[in-house]
């Protein structure tokens, strides 16, 4: 049996995608919309305190295309908290104007492929801790997609020995590092939690860098030979102003 990579886990993650029922929203009267917005803003207004208390982080983006209209990405300390959050949203008057589009449950994950130096408590390393419990950047764009590593007879990631996987992941990391400062990635593990093995969430000021990075990685053996990809969601940061503008009738 090949040796499993050691993983470190941080905050639990929920990517909650919703679509707006524009017919109902535009047909509602001003009073109904005002109540819905008030409840929505109260819900969103709690996120800042959670970040300050360092017990989680949330981000809100619109989604381009017909797969969804918006995504709320939440990082929290437990699945219970994620559950409470989605339920709290569902109870707002605003939720009555939305439908569920997609969701993804996972946990922030770091693996030991490139960690090199052993020993010591990795959680005591502030860089590691910051990556496991990241404050989501308020970058202009988000890109999310789930993925697997292949388990086919000829190309089975899970049958490769540790040394080989380390070597392959080293090359993966090198490409990634070429995008330092342009793309921030958060890898979340979802084996046992959702339908794919990982969620990949990327943040960038320039959305074109998503295409450049993902395309370049396709030529790297880890992705070219072993990567399998789910649907891609791409979107724009929703600030209080741009969200107001989006919902204005
Ligand atoms: O964490 C680290 O920085 C160490 C190196 C590293 C690991 C272990 C790393 C670096 N990644 C790691 C693990 Mn990654 N990553 C992806 C995708 O679209 C595709 O082809 C793949 C989707 C992107 C875009 C990306 C970006 N990475 C992983 C894993 C877990 C693998 C496992 O355990 O088997 C997956 C699924 C995955 C996928 N990766 C980087 C990046 C970037 C930008 C980096 C450089 C990070 C940095 O140095 O700042």
From TrEMBL:
Name this protein carries in UniProt: Coproheme decarboxylase
Known function: Involved in coproporphyrin-dependent heme b biosynthesis. Catalyzes the decarboxylation of Fe-coproporphyrin III (coproheme) to heme b (protoheme IX), the last step of the pathway. The reaction occurs in a stepwise manner with a three-propionate intermediate.
Keyword Zinc belongs to the record: no
Family the entry assigns: Belongs to the ChdC family. Type 1 subfamily.
Sites where the protein binds Fe-coproporphyrin III: 131, 145-149, 172, 185, 223
Highest taxon of the lineage: Bacteria
Gene3D superfamilies: Apc35880, domain 1
Cofactor note: Fe-coproporphyrin III acts as both substrate and redox cofactor.
Class in the EC hierarchy, top level: oxidoreductase
Cofactor(s) of this protein: Fe-coproporphyrin III
Pfam families, sorted: Chlor_dismutase
Active site per the UniProt annotation: 145
GO biological process terms, semicolon-separated: heme B biosynthetic process
Claim: Iron is one of the keywords in the record: yes
InterPro entries (UniProt xref): CHDC, ChdC/CLD, Dimeric_a/b-barrel
Keywords: Heme, Heme biosynthesis, Iron, Metal-binding, Oxidoreductase, Peroxidase
A GO molecular-function descriptor: heme binding
Gene responsible for this protein: chdC
